[in-house]
Amino acid sequence: MTSEHGRSLDEMAADLTDRRRPFARATVVRAQPPTSARAGDQALVMADGEMFGFVGGQCAVESVRQSAVDSIAAGEGVLLRVLPEGAETYPETSGARVAVNPCLSGGALEIFIQPVVPTPIIQVVGDKPIALAIVDQARLLGWAVSRVDPEAAGVWEFTEPHGVVASIIASHGGDEAAAIRTALDHHVPFVGLVASVRRGATVLDAMDLSVTDRACVHTPVGLDIGARTPPEIALSVLAAVVAAIRRDGLAGTGAPEDAPAVVEPRREVDPICGMTVMVSADTIEYDDESGSHWFCCKGCRDTFVARSAGGLQAAQ
Fold first, then answer.
1. For 247, which of 8, 74, 93, 109 is 20 to 30 Å away at the CA?
2. 128 domain residue, yes or no
3. Of the candidates 11, 92, 9, the residue with the CA atom closest to the CA atom of residue 44
């Protein structure tokens, strides 16, 4: 199956993954005639709703686009059941979502949508046992890890400048302030300093941080679990990072510089069938004296135009 510029969807997915661009893969797992899709048909959906590939007609496409965008934002897969109006519905359960489309010509679809979100990156400054334990445990979580030599803490550059969710300084001395400053300058949302309460406060007080920057720095870093050994301390540190990710939805340091800004897609209601559609450059639109209107398909637009023309003639 091909996508943009003749590339296969697999090639496109590999490229997006390499460039750390979030997307979702939608796969038809069941199709009931007379739907045009077949089991195994696939599409890739970007975070802004742009789609490549084929998973059915326009009515099914709108449901897939919206579910995929929501799936990417939540970081969770979903089984989408697309049903024509009047069909026997399925109960909505965890991990499943039902879309009843009035304009669907018949048949039903089940489509599994799997988000592919860039792996979080954690930077660890230090070469002592606690730093090494943090590195080992972060890898067990499936994160990408970059360990920084504490001797270069003041001049180091991120080997992966995009997607860093946390920088942990566990050098136990050295130029910790320079390491913190570098992380803040790269807009890392969670910066942790492994230190005692007194030493951590001393380091931060000497830096004259802004209120915003100070809120990003955590010291002593880690949840209070009574940790004593390096592995236990590493566990408490990573637990604090995970808690921040889940609680605050930490994003990394951003998409690559060549990535277009992701804007939450605009959603409008088709005035004919009542379906919610995502507004993009290729969304069917019709403008009249009452304003702009968007439609799931040409049939709905033509019906709207005909009704508008009929109402205008009656008024005359």
1. 93
2. yes
3. 9
Residue that is last in its domain, among 51, 86, 116: 116
Segments forming the whole domain that contains residue 299:
266-311
The DSSP letter of residue 152 is G
The total number of structural domains in the chain stands at 3
Q: Which helix or strand (DSSP H or E) is residue 147 part of?
A: strand 144-148
Confirm if 165 and 190 have CB atoms less than 8 A apart.
Answer: yes
Q: Are residues 194 and 144 in the same domain?
A: yes
Contact 64, 80 (CB under 8 A): yes
Contact 107, 60 (CB under 8 A): no
Which segments of the chain does DSSP mark as H helices, in order? 9-18, 58-74, 129-140, 176-185, 197-205, 211-216, 230-248, 298-315
Tokens standing for 133? 């334990």
List the chain pLDDT tens, one digit each, 316 residues.
455 556 899 999 999 988 888 999 999 998 888 788 899 999 999 988 889 999 988 778 888 988 999 999 888 899 998 887 665 555 555 566 777 666 555 678 899 999 998 888 899 999 899 999 999 999 999 888 888 877 765 545 555 556 788 999 998 877 899 889 988 988 889 999 999 999 999 999 999 899 999 999 999 999 999 999 999 999 999 999 999 988 876 665 544 444 444 566 788 888 888 777 878 777 888 888 888 998 878 888 888 888 887 655 554 4
Residue 110 and residue 55 share a domain: yes
Phi first, then psi: give them for residue 166, nearest 5 degrees: -155, 145
